Amino acid sequence: MMEKASNASFLSKNPHLFEIKNLKVYFPAQTSSLIRRKYVYAVDDVSFFIDSGEVLGLVGESGSGKTTIGRVIARLTPPTEGKVLFQGRDIMSLRGKDLKNYRRMVQMIFQDPYESLNPRLTVFSTIAFPLRVQGIVKDKNKIREYCIDLLRSVGLSEDAIDKYPHELSGGERQRVAIARALAVKPQFLIADEPVSMLDLSIRSGILNLLMELKNQYGLTYLLTTHDLRVAYYTCDRIIVMYLGKIMEIAPIEDFMSHQFHPYSQLLLSASASFGFGDRPKRRLGATGEIASAIDPPEGCRFHPRCPFRTEECSKKTPPLAELRNRRFVACFNPQ
Amino acid sequence: MALALNPVLLIADEPTTALDVVVARQVLEVLWDMKKRFGLSVLFITHDLSTLAEFSNRIAVMYSGMLVEMADTKSLLSNPLHPYTDGLVKSLMSLTRRGEKLWSIPGSPPDLAAEIKGCRFRPRCPIAMERCFSKKPEFIEVGQGHYVACHKVVS
């Protein structure tokens, strides 16, 4: 039975904006073997929810699956198994008008502003394109005006409108990408490492802008980053991922005061501690690099690098359990 | 490979910029060990001040092709004189303050092909004065080993 896509009726029935249930995304890997097909276990049995109005951070190293999750929610990558429910409805079941509306409500900002903008389109064409597709501005003569307003709201001047991407700096490009995402009046924004390609002096400007826009338009964000400092400034809750699995979920303030998972502790100790000329103050507890997602370790994915591992860790996968209020940890020996 | 010929100076050009935090940290630790073991000097090029805060003796700050400030790490970070350095230090993200608005330097770096009279940072500078429009500031020693190129600071 089809339900009408009216926001109010859904919100009352479903407390969460998104529910991700047992999501698995496997990509076929290039192998020489014809007999046994291998897979990259990019996301492996991940469940969580996103509440309306919050900023949820997905934190982890490259290869932890955080970008893939964002792409699945944006319906750019199909899940292998599991479901993504948006206001109670499976996003893969959306068709026609509902799908078009979903594509409007869920927008994505990509990591690299040098690649996410079409080099042959001016800023105006870039922003006007989704407007035309979605029919946001009915009066054709008003499209330009609407675009200028948008540019101003992301901190760009009116002159930027007829420029091409190569005439803009990295920070300005990212602002254009943000304007493009906002053009269609979305509800939910996926920001995939929005500042990691940008210079330090530009970074805080973009983060401030994202937070201002969130408050102004009442948006909900899913923000992926490998930098805990970025997460600390922007997120309400964070999910720490490692090799396609969730290690820990926690409200950010609580997380900063204590991390239960050894991997979370490693991530935090790797973030610059910032003491003057202190030299490497603390040695990292764990060693090695992130393992391959093609043949992930048995048991806990993190155990080969974990300083607290026991025998159990190499045999069984620790379940994600609620250790105390709103804090979930997947570890047999939480610290 | 860089160490095969027993160098005295190692130039590391943004060695950690594209890396993940954990791996970046490991690279820095290796660099630091090498430096100690072989008595190397390291010229570490980066845009990330927080890395330098831990891994450098002295810092030279460049803006648009010119040196704007140079000092030992501690004085540069605790007492930045040039408005650009000051902006950089203020926009460093720490793990202790939350909820505050992040500091950011307005504008973006200038087009290097266009000729700018006077100080190149002037269009973005919060304390620019008249002289900054006409005359390029010289790089002058203002404290022990602390150099800066700014009219306002020198005056």
- The radius of gyration computed from the alpha-carbon positions of chain B, rounded to a whole number of angstroms, is 17 Å
Biggest beta sheet summary of chain A: 8 strands, mixed
Which strands sit side by side, in order, in the main sheet of chain A?
6-7-8-3-9-10-12-11
Low-confidence stretches of chain A: 1-12, 274-282
* Helicity range of chain A: 25-40%
Mean pLDDT across residues of chain B: 84
Distance between the termini of chain B: 48 Å
Principal-axes geometry of chain B comes out as globular
Could you characterize what this model shows?
The complex is a heterodimer of chains A (335) and B (155). Chain A has 335 residues and is an alpha/beta fold. In chain A, strand 4 (81-86) and strand 5 (89-90) form a beta hairpin. Chain A is globular and about 70 Å long. Helices cover 32% and strands 21% of the residues of chain A. Chain A has 11 helices and 12 strands. Chain A starts with 6 loop residues before the first helix and ends in a 6-residue tail after the last strand. In chain A, the strands form 2 sheets. Chain A has an 8-stranded mixed beta sheet, sandwiched between helices. Chain A has a 4-stranded antiparallel beta sheet with strand order 2-1-4-5, covered by helices on one side. Chain B has 155 residues and is of the alpha+beta class. In chain B, 31% of the residues lie in helices and 19% in strands. Chain B contains 6 helices and 6 strands. Chain B has helices spanning 21-38, 49-55, 73-78, 83-90, 130-134, 151-154, and strands spanning 9-13, 41-45, 58-63, 66-72, 140-143, 146-148. Chain B has a 4-stranded antiparallel beta sheet with strand order 3-4-6-5. Chain B has a two-stranded parallel sheet with strand order 1-2. In chain B, a hairpin with a 2-residue loop joins strand 3 (58-63) and strand 4 (66-72). Chain B is globular. Chains A and B meet through helix 7, helix 8, helix 9 and helix 10 of A and helix 1, helix 2 and helix 3 of B.
